[in-house]
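Hi team,

As requested, here is the filled-out complex form for the adenosine-5'-triphosphate run. I kept the field names the same as last time so the parser does not choke. Let me know if anything looks off before we queue the next batch.

— J.
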Amino acid sequence: MKKEIGQLSDSSVKLSCRNLWKLYGPFPERFAQESQLRQALNSGREFTALRDINLDIRHGEIFVVMGLSGSGKSTLLRCLTRLVEPSFGEVLLDGAPLTSLDAQGLMNIRRHKMAMVFQNFALLPHLTVAENIGLPLKIRGSDTAEINRVVPEMTALVGLSGMSQRLPHQLSGGQQQRVGLARALAGDPELLFLDEPFSALDPLIRRELQGEVIRLQSRLKKTMIFVTHDFNEAVRLGDTIVIMKDGKVVQTGAPEDIVANPIDDYVGSFVAGVDQTRVISCGRIAIPAKSSAYAVTVDDRAKIVEVADLVANSNGPVGVVDQSGHVSGEIDATTVLRMLASGSRERLAS
Ligand SMILES: Nc1ncnc2c1ncn2[C@@H]1O[C@H](COP(=O)(O)OP(=O)(O)OP(=O)(O)O)[C@@H](O)[C@H]1O
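And here is what came back:
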């Protein structure tokens, strides 16, 4: 059911949008109503980059926006921060409409609650690592004592202690993006927006920095909105993934739900390149238990890849145990080996 503008969700929601549209064109003021925006879809003169987006982003989650080039990911991210003004709809931060804030109110929120990490790092070339990291604090008007306390802490957090006096050009791409992350975190923002932050990096460094985001997140519990066109990255990082196409949301869900049930061929084409054994849990593939006692059991949240050895080497089916300790089903070696084989095929193909 379509949600009404202004309808507030529960307190676990940090950021949300309702009926969000963005139209690019010569006369955007002509499209102030949702019905006019719908008509503009077919006009050919205007371009509708976002079409009626409704999302809820929970406190402390990594919310990944994924889709092919031109699907509207960056436009969505920018509308959520109002770096780009939405044509219609509302953005709500902690339930309060961001979309009705004046310039001063918006600046305060941006300075104190939000931070961004960009694909091109966007470091100031003439400032040292330490000065780049301290920049948001300086802009905010923090005193020297606070800057001197926070900057070394953030530098160490991203593993760059000892490099604080270097200039950006004296760092590798991966190190530059570590500075970008530290700078974003220095102001202790509630919301972190990351727009394809690792796309310019080679695959090994990219993976290393994904691990860094997971580590930072488990420690700092920020709400992160992470844009990527890489589905494997989305699955690795996301608590929730929204998949976009032509400015619309095609599917939203936990990585495991999307991988297990892609809604259409578009999503299916991304899922086809993923090793499912790393995403799907035992609970998902279990069949009804035929016994109440098993010699070997596994946690229903464990990923297939984590229990593969155990299941393959057991004599007979293995019990799957839910969070209250009850046997909720069973899995057998044939199912697990079949999934592992298909995962290997996908790895070979990619
Ligand atoms: N200022 C603008 N004026 C007109 N059209 C625009 C403008 N900015 C973006 N668009 C169009 O809106 C659509 C969505 O762009 P957007 O940058 O949000 O996509 P994206 O999914 O982030 O793509 P990419 O992964 O290539 O960055 C694209 O077709 C783009 O050409």
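Two things worth flagging: Residues 24, 47, 49, 67, 69-75, 229 surround adenosine-5'-triphosphate (CB under 6 Å). The first strand starts at residue 13 and ends at 24.

Thanks,
J.
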